[in-house]
Amino acid sequence: MTATDPALTSLAQSWCALSLLHGKIEARIERALQSRHSLSAREFSLLDVLSRQHSGTGGHLQMKQVADAVVLSQSATTRLVTRLEDRGLLTRYLCDTDRRGIYTDVTEAGLTLLDEARPTNDTALRAALDEAAENPELAPLVRTVEALKIPARAGGDA
């Protein structure tokens, strides 16, 4: 295969379309969450992931699991947790059974903000997908996303 191979060019164009769709969705959600709730899309995602934890065996996520879920490095996730903790939206505490482990929980204020922001997130997502569906390059990707039928995660499933 060469750099001008049509299969590679097509693959690269498909990747660009997927990246464009992601960027449009993220930008729409970011603007909506910032303007209405003073939350970034990453902050919303972090609150959402952490709100699905539960007490007991396997209930709390390790920082690496949280970082993977919000698609950030561990250090960036730690900084994000600190910012939300400073705002009173999260709290950290030591694990009872392993003093090296630190748990992060969403506070009542964080849960309230998350509940208020969820409809904004969902509306912005729907609007971004509807707008993208009008673009012939992006329409097949929108249809694929809509057809995935991934069940909503219940509280405790992260």
Structure characterization notes:
63% of the residues lie in helices and 6% in strands. The chain has a two-stranded antiparallel sheet with strand order 1-2. It contains 6 helices and 2 strands; from the N terminus they run ααααββαα. With 158 residues, the chain is mainly α. The mean pLDDT is 88. The longest helix has 32 residues, at 6-37. A hairpin with a 7-residue loop joins strand 1 (90-94) and strand 2 (102-106).
What is the count of β-strands?
A: 2
The overall pLDDT, averaged over residues, is: 88
Unreliable sequence segments: none
Put simply, the count of helices is: 6
N- and C-termini, Cα separation: 41 Å
What is this structure's SSE topology?
Layout: H1 6-37, H2 41-51, H3 63-70, H4 74-86, E1 90-94, E2 102-106, H5 108-133, H6 139-147
Antiparallel strand pairs: 1-2
Short summary:
With 158 residues, this protein is mainly α. It contains 6 helices and 2 strands, in the order ααααββαα.
Salient structural properties:
mainly alpha; two-stranded antiparallel ribbon; 6% strand; 63% helix; 158 residues
